[in-house]
TrEMBL record:
Domain of life: Bacteria
Protein's UniProt name: Lysophospholipase L1-like esterase
Domain Carbohydrate esterase 2 N-terminal: 44-134
The SGNH hydrolase-type esterase domain, residue ranges: 149-300
Species in which this protein is naturally found: Sphingomonas abaci
A Pfam family the protein falls into: CE2_N
SUPFAM superfamilies assigned: SGNH hydrolase
Lineage: Bacteria, Pseudomonadati, Pseudomonadota, Alphaproteobacteria, Sphingomonadales
One GO molecular-function entry: carboxylic ester hydrolase activity
PANTHER family: ESTERASE, SGNH HYDROLASE-TYPE, GDSL-LIKE LIPASE/ACYLHYDROLASE DOMAIN PROTEIN (AFU_ORTHOLOGUE AFUA_2G00620)
């Protein structure tokens, strides 16, 4: 897929009857878009501002329908990498595009569905997708199947498209692609809407190497990471939660100034808090299934501790919960993270649980 670096014009030859090509996307000097605001279907948490969306959690996307051979897309500030898809076909990737108006042309006559999805992680600050505009807007329906993915860098897709483990911070950013990670792969398999509530480096009670920041269960309470906007999940009722937390709690040694006297105290705190977090998800959405997975990192400590939490919840009567340990992954992505191929193995494990419980979709 071709890239637009900094908003330079791009012509893309496409294949398939729906997109005759060439498709062109380019920034335009105009400040006012052509056409009317198109109603957006939004994937992921965010704050609706005017005709667009301000967001920070990874894996966000917007979709819009129209009956024109093109549309305008407004982008706001913030470094981001965006995949542009039309009728399910990738046509371009925008890399750190400048704020402004972009025009998509050459789609051919008929109805089209535009999807703009965030591939990069945005821990440094939120970014804005400023809206889609067309002469003949069409409604876009949400999907009947809904999945929420909760986790750390493994769920984000940190450095998953890299050629090797050694990466600079810029290379990590450029090779992180949530859409090619677990969430994207599983959701495409089941044609599901999804949310990705994951942050690299965060744990349940302890972040990577003990660094100070909200652990994931605390950050989960907010729409953005600044604590100014509490999460508003009304209307979002996933049938499945896919959760993986613990790598950052256990992958590094404890330091003398941390809150836990020893590893045993850390394990107890982790088990208590992880169980409470999963219990809260179940309480808020009791008909949904929970699928918890863990890798065999930290000499198996991550999987052993996560497995104990799942057994505790089963003992409390929560039946719709599964667990899997993923061993033998290559971890050949940036800084020893899973690759896209590893993500495929994890996605297969999730799919194994889903296919064994087909009734989970019947809501």
């Amino acid at each position: 897929m071709n890239r637009i670096l900094g908003g330079v014009a791009l012509t893309v030859m496409t294949t398939g009857a729906a997109l005759p090509g060439p498709v062109r996307i380019a920034p335009v000097a105009a400040t006012e878009p052509q056409g009317k605001p198109v109603p957006l279907h939004i994937g992921g948490r965010g704050i609706v501002e005017g005709d667009g969306l301000r967001r920070q959690w990874p894996g966000s996307y917007i979709e819009a329908g129209f009956a024109d051979d093109g549309a305008d897309l407004r982008l706001g500030p913030g470094d981001v990498r965006l995949h542009i898809l039309v009728d399910g076909k990738p046509v371009a990737t925008l890399v750190k595009p400048k704020p402004g108006l972009y025009r998509l042309t050459g789609l051919g006559k008929g109805a089209h569905r535009l999807r703009v999805e965030v591939a990069s992680e945005s821990q440094a600050g939120p970014t804005s997708l400023g809206g889609v505009f067309a002469r003949h807007p069409l409604p876009v329906r949400s999907r009947a199947r809904r999945i929420e993915f909760i986790g750390d860098s493994h769920t984000v897709g940190y450095g998953n498209t890299a050629d090797g483990q050694a990466c600079t911070p810029d290379q990590v950013w450029d090779t992180t692609d949530t859409s090619q990670g677990i969430a994207g792969q599983v959701s495409r398999r089941y044609d599901a809407d999804y949310r990705v509530n994951a942050i690299s480096g965060r744990g349940v009670v302890r972040n990577y190497n003990g660094f100070a920041a909200d652990p994931l269960p605390i950050a989960y309470r907010y729409t953005l990471f600044d604590h100014d906007h509490g999460a508003n999940d009304r209307g979002w009722q996933p049938q499945l939660y896919v959760v993986a937390l613990g790598t950052n709690d256990f992958s590094t040694p404890l330091h003398p100034d941390e809150a836990w006297a020893d590893r045993a105290a850390l394990r107890r705190d982790y088990e208590t808090r992880y169980a409470a977090f999963l219990r809260d998800l179940h309480r808020a959405n009791p008909r949904a299934h929970l699928f918890v997975w863990a890798t065999d990192r930290a000499e198996g400590e991550v999987a052993a501790e996560a497995g104990k939490v799942v057994e505790r919840l089963r003992g409390e009567g929560i039946a719709n919960i599964g667990f899997a340990t993923l061993d033998g992954l290559s971890f050949n992505g940036c800084n020893s993270h899973p690759t896209v191929a590893d993500d495929r193995r994890i996605a297969d494990a999730v799919a194994g649980y889903v296919d064994a419980h087909p009734s989970l979709w019947r809501r």
